[in-house]
Amino acid sequence: MQTLCTDFDTQLETGTGNTPRLQRTSGTGRLSVRRREGRSVVGDLYQEGAAKIRMPKVHSGPILEAVLMNTAGGLTGGDVFDWQITVDEAACAVATTPACERIYRTTGGAARIETRLTVGPHAALAYLPQETIVYDRAALSRRIEADLAPNASLLLLESLIFGRAAMGEIVHTADILDSWRIRSDGRLLHAEQLQFQGDIPALFAKASVTGGAPAMATCLFVHDRAADIVDGVRDRIGAHGGASAWRVLDRDKLLIRVVAHDGLTLRSALIPALLQCNKNLLGSDQYTLPKVWSL
To answer: What is the C-alpha separation between 33 and 35, in angstroms, rounded?
Structure first.
């Protein structure tokens, strides 16, 4: 989904324009999770720059919860973050963020976020970052790659909010690229590339895009019971989106899309569906959603 490039977009791509080169933020965070004595625990932990990973204490049985933090307080053009999460055999983990990530106006170039997820045999990972808020004239290139063992499970979520309605914010122009590549046993299971570029209000006004809604979420659930819950997920989402399930490479996958006119409505529609997916993924009613998601 894209419109013709404006002069602003051209400057983002070429790095031209009479703007000074400013200091930029970078961060690298790597976490591996192992199963030991019936619980999921930290195997290896590495953090560099503005990337920090914290493991809050949760009373959720064998599950490890990790919070991925950007201590810079947001991203702008030229910032680079690299996250890697590995969940070893039979381990179970949930990864989230402490708050909404913010993508600020760029003076040149795009912010880049690279996320690599690896889930081992009989392991499960729920990757549930909170929403990404996009400001006017922001630029972001975000890529997620996941490698799953043939019997691994994954719940993957990303949400975008173009301007906060309660603050009267309007995103006139932006350049946002979201790219997903999910593989099972080395073979491509799911791929999508979503791009919003140029005149954002005009683009979103199209019924085939969001029908004017500036907030959206995409959720992918890969699990052996994913197809069994599609009707329940649709009921929980209601009129705010849709869900489809199909089988690829002998794996069931459920894809959920939700759109809304503000972040609160988006989250209210999304949470019931996430709860149902999480119940199947983690095999327990004890764990709901990360504590940092509480409003």
So the answer is: 7
Are the CB atoms for 133 and 103 separated by under 8 Å? yes
Unique residue bearing structure tokens 């819950």? 229
What span, in angstroms and rounded, lies between the C-alpha atoms of 261 and 58? 33
Q: Where are the alpha helices (DSSP H) in 132-283?
A: 200-204, 230-237, 263-282
Q: In Å, what is the CA distance from 86 to each residue of 211, 238, 246?
A: 38, 34, 26
Tokens in use for 69? 């933090």
Cα 47 versus chain centre, distance: 20
What does the alpha-carbon distance between residue 41 and residue 97 come to, in Å, rounded to a whole number?
Answer: 19
Q: Is 275 helix (H, G, I), strand (E, B) or coil?
A: helix
- In this structure, is the dihedral angle defined by the CA atoms of residues 151, 47, 54 and 131, taken in order, positive or negative? negative
Q: What pTM, to 2 d.p., does this model score?
A: 0.90
Spacing of C-alpha 178 from chain mean position: 9
Encoded tokens for 35? 């199963």
Q: Cα dist. 294→85, 90, 106 in Å? A: 23, 28, 31
Q: What is the CA radius of gyration of the chain?
A: 19
Close Cβ partners of 271 (under 8 Å, ≥ 6 residues apart): 289, 293
Give Cα 183 to chain centroid, integer Å: 17
pLDDT in tens, 270-295: 999 999 998 888 876 667 788 888 75
